[in-house]
C-alpha cells in the first residue's frame, strides 16, 4: 500500500511504512528526497559516476575523532575494554580502569585545541588532492557535527566545536569537493566489549562502563547526559561476543550478531540524512559491507536515494559519489566500489576507489616513534597503479588529538606535493589504456580479501615496472624507478603492437629524448640526471590514433 502526499507542489508516492505523521499540513521527516531514484537496487542501478570524480583521481582524508586523543591507534574505543590487550594495558596506565574511566571520558579529554582546518586542507590541495573527506562519526557512535539526533556530538561534548562544519568550510574555501565518512552503523555490536568486566586481578567482576545510564551521572562531569545514547548497549550480546575476532565474521549483520532495534536503525538514518542536508557533501563513504545496516534494514538504500536526488536538485545533474565495500557486479552499478588498503589485479570496467593511510587510521604515536609511515614513494607508486586501472586513491594522514599532523607526516605530504607538481599531467582527467602496465610486479600481489587488504603483498616496484594512462591521443608511461644503465625498454609499445611512435618526452626534463621503436619494444635513452625522484613519466605521441 502506498500513500500520496504533496510537498511544495511535488506529488510523491511513498511507502506508508516510511511516512511519519504530518503537522499543520506539512510532512515531517520525509524518508528520502523526491526525485528519480528510489530505495531499490533496480532504481539505484541507473547511477552514473560523475565526470568530476573520474577526473579527480586523488583525494585526501582526515579520519579524525576522539579515538585519536589517546594517540594509540585504531579501534581504541573497542579494544580498551579487552582485558590483557595492549590498548587495555595502555588505558590502565594513562587513564585508569575502564570501570571508572571509560571511552565517554576519553571524549571529554578531547579538546582539538590546535586544529586549523584551513591550513591542513590548504596543504592537501597543494599536494594535489581534488577532493577532501572528513570523518563524521566512527564505530564509537560519536558525531563530529551539530547533530540534533545524537546528543553525544562534538558541539556539546569534548571540543565543543562543529568539526564537520569547519572541514566543510575549509574545503569550500579551497575549491575542493567535500566528502564525509560515516562508520556509526556498527556501534551496536562494536561497543559490546564495554559490557564486559575483568576476569582476573583486583577488579575482577566489576563491570566496565558500557551499561551505565543517565541516573549514574549524578555528581560527575556527564551529569544529565545518557551514556547509552553513545554506547547503545542495553541489548543482549552477539553470539560468541567474548571472542574478540568474532565481529569480523558478523560485519554483514549475520552469523549470530545481535540485531539492532528499529529505533537504533532509524536514529542512524536520521543522523545521516541531517548530515547530508546540513553540510551538503558530494561524497559519502560508508565503512560497511555494501550499505549500512544492509540487509537487516533499508536505511542505506534510502540514504542513497536521498543523496542522489538531492544532488540532482542542487546541480541539475547527478554529482554525488557514494562508496560501498564488498560489492557484487549489480551493486557496483549503484555506487562506487571502495577497496580498503588494497589494489585490483587489472583494469576495472567501473571507476573505483582505494582508500589507504600512511599509518594507522587513528593517530598512533608508536608508528611515529618507529618511523613506520608510508613514504611519498610508496604513495605515488600506489597512485599510479590505481589510476592505471580506472581507480582513484583516497589517502588518510592521521591527525593528532590536538588537531595537528606531525612533522614526519608533513614531510610525506611535501614529498607527494613535489612529485605531483611535476607529473600530475599523467594523473588528472586521465583514463586507462589497453593495458594497465608491464613489469615484474604485474601479478605479484595477493588477491583481494573481503574489503581489500592486499596492499604491500607484492614485490616492490622497480625500473622495469611501468604504469600507463591516456589523455586524448597522448599515452603516458610512468617508470617506477631509474635504471642504472640509463636505458628503458617498454615492451608493450613494440612496433607490432602499436602505431609508429612520433615523439617521446620526459616530464620535468627540458631536453629531447632519443628513442627507437622495434619489434622488441620502445627503447628510450635516458638523460644523465633523473628529473626528480620516485617515478618518471614519459609522454608518448603516436601510439594512439
Layout of SSEs?
Layout: E1 2-7, E2 10-15, E3 22-23, E4 26-27, H1 41-44, H2 51-56, E5 58-62, H3 76-79, H4 86-94, H5 103-109, H6 117-126, E6 131-137, H7 163-173, E7 177-182, H8 187-190, H9 228-231, H10 246-249, H11 262-279, E8 283-289, H12 299-315, E9 321-325, E10 336-340, E11 352-357, H13 365-369, H14 376-387, E12 391-396, H15 407-423, E13 437-438, E14 466-471, E15 474-479, E16 487-490, E17 503-506, E18 514-517, E19 522-525, E20 536-541
Parallel strand pairs: 5-6, 5-12, 6-7, 7-8, 8-9, 9-10, 10-11, 11-12
Antiparallel strand pairs: 1-2, 3-4, 13-14, 14-15, 15-20, 16-19, 17-20, 18-19
Helix pairs in contact: 6-7, 11-12, 14-15
CA radius of gyration is 25 Å
Task: Tell me about the largest β-sheet.
Answer: 8 strands, parallel, barrel
Helix vs. strand class: alpha/beta
Termini distance?
A: 57 Å
Mean pLDDT: 93
Strand content: 15-25%
Helix content: 10-25%
Number of strands: 20
Shape: globular
Unreliable residue stretches: 1-30
Number of discrete helical segments:
15
Strand order of the largest sheet: 5-6-7-8-9-10-11-12
Amino acid at each position: 500500500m502506498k500513500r500520496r502526499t504533496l510537498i511544495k507542489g511535488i506529488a510523491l508516492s511513498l511507502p506508508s511504512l516510511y511516512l511519519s505523521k504530518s503537522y499543520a499540513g506539512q510532512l515531517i521527516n520525509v524518508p528520502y528526497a523526491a526525485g528519480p531514484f528510489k530505495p531499490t537496487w533496480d532504481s539505484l542501478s541507473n547511477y552514473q559516476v560523475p565526470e568530476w570524480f573520474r577526473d579527480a583521481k586523488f583525494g585526501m582524508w582526515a579520519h579524525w575523532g576522539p579515538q585519536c586523543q589517546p594517540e594509540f591507534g585504531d579501534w581504541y574505543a573497542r579494544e580498551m575494554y579487552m582485558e590483557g590487550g595492549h590498548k587495555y594495558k595502555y588505558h590502565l596506565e594513562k587513564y585508569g580502569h575502564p570501570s571508572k574511566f571509560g571511552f565517554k571520558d576519553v571524549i571529554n579529554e578531547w579538546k582539538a585545541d590546535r586544529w586549523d582546518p584551513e591550513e591542513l586542507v590548504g596543504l592537501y590541495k597543494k599536494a594535489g588532492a581534488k577532493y577532501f573527506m572528513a570523518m563524521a562519526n566512527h564505530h564509537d557512535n560519536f558525531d563530529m557535527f551539530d547533530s540534533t539526533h545524537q546528543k553525544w556530538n562534538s558541539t556539546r561534548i569534548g571540543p565543543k566545536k562543529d568539526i564537520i562544519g569547519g572541514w566543510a568550510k575549509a574545503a569550500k574555501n579551497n575549491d575542493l569537493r567535500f566528502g564525509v565518512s560515516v562508520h556509526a552503523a556498527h556501534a551496536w555490536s562494536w561497543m559490546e566489549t564495554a559490557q564486559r568486566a575483568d576476569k582476573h586481578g583486583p577488579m575482577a567482576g566489576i563491570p566496565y562502563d558500557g551499561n551505565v545510564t543517565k541516573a549514574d551521572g549524578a555528581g560527575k562531569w556527564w551529569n544529565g547526559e545518557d551514556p547509552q545514547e553513545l554506547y547503545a548497549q542495553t541489548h543482549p550480546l552477539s553470539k560468541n561476543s567474548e571472542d574478540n575476532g568474532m565481529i569480523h565474521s558478523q560485519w554483514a549483520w549475520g552469523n549470530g550478531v545481535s540485531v539492532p532495534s528499529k529505533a537504533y536503525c532509524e536514529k542512524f538514518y536520521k543522523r545521516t540524512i541531517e548530515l547530508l542536508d546540513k553540510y551538503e557533501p558530494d561524497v559519502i563513504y560508508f565503512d560497511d559491507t555494501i550499505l549500512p545496516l544492509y540487509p537487516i534494514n533499508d536505511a542505506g538504500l534510502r540514504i542513497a536515494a536521498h543523496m542522489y536526488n538531492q544532488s540532482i536538485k542542487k546541480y541539475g545533474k547527478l554529482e554525488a559519489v557514494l562508496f560501498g565495500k564488498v560489492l557484487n557486479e549489480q551493486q557496483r552499478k549503484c555506487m562506487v566500489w571502495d577497496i580498503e588498503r588494497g589494489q585490483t589485479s587489472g583494469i576495472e570496467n567501473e571507476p573505483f576507489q582505494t582508500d589507504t593511510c600512511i599509518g594507522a587510521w587513528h593517530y598512533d604515536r608508536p608508528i611515529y616513534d618507529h618511523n613506520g609511515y608510508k613514504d611519498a614513494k610508496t604513495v605515488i607508486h600506489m597512485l599510479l597503479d590505481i589510476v592505471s586501472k580506472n581507480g582513484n586513491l583516497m589517502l588518510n594522514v592521521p591527525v593528532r588529538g590536538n588537531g595537528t599532523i606531525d612533522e614526519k607526516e608533513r614531510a610525506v605530504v611535501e614529498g607527494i606535493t613535489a612529485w605531483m607538481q611535476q607529473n600530475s599531467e599523467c594523473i588528472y582527467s586521465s583514463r586507462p589504456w589497453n593495458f594497465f602496465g608491464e613489469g615484474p610486479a604485474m601479478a605479484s600481489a595477493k588477491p583481494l580479501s573481503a574489503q581489500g587488504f592486499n596492499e604491500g603483498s607484492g614485490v616492490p616496484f622497480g625500473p622495469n615496472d611501468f604504469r600507463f594512462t591516456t589523455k586524448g591521443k597522448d599515452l603516458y608511461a610512468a617508470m617506477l624507478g631509474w635504471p642504472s644503465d640509463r636505458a628503458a625498454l617498454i615492451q608493450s609499445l613494440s612496433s607490432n603492437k602499436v602505431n609508429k611512435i612520433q615523439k617521446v618526452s620526459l616530464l620535468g626534463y627540458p631536453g629531447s629524448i632519443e628513442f627507437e621503436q622495434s619489434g622488441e619494444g620502445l627503447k628510450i635513452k635516458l638523460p644523465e640526471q633523473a628529473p626528480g625522484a620516485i617515478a618518471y613519466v614519459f609522454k608518448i605521441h603516436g601510439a594512439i590514433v
